[in-house]
Amino acid sequence: MSGLVETGRSALRSALERVGRGWGKVQERRPLSYDLLESDDAYLVVFDAPGVRGEDVDVTFLDHTVEVSLERFRDFYDGYDLVFPGRGVSLSSSVDLPRDADVTPEGANATLTRNGTLHVEIPKREGSGDVDVVEADD
Hints:
20% of the residues lie in helices and 31% in strands. The protein has 138 residues and is of the alpha+beta class. The chain has a single domain, classed as Immunoglobulin-like. A hairpin with a 4-residue loop joins strand 6 (109-112) and strand 7 (117-123). This is HSP20 type chaperone.
């Protein structure tokens, strides 16, 4: 009887592992969640970045777009076996910024917070702003 119970446990563990790996792959295909905020002189993009370290984050600026890629790793715990590997490990996202964003690495900064968010601040271009439109007399 114990052989039957052990076989059942093994089958359940195998099924959970397959489901978990599938769920992790789904997470890797979805873009990271983010908020885009604006102040008088800058834009702030706040990405969800749980479980990553600064050296595992890449922030790239390309054509008024901020691209972020994260690699996170699963910690191993003594005395525990991984049953459900449900967290994606390679995550990414991109954000199209308004035209007045100064999308260059020189003025921007990125901060990984302790609560698992990545803040990317991009200054606005000097002298940019709305242009008054005047109707011409015909």
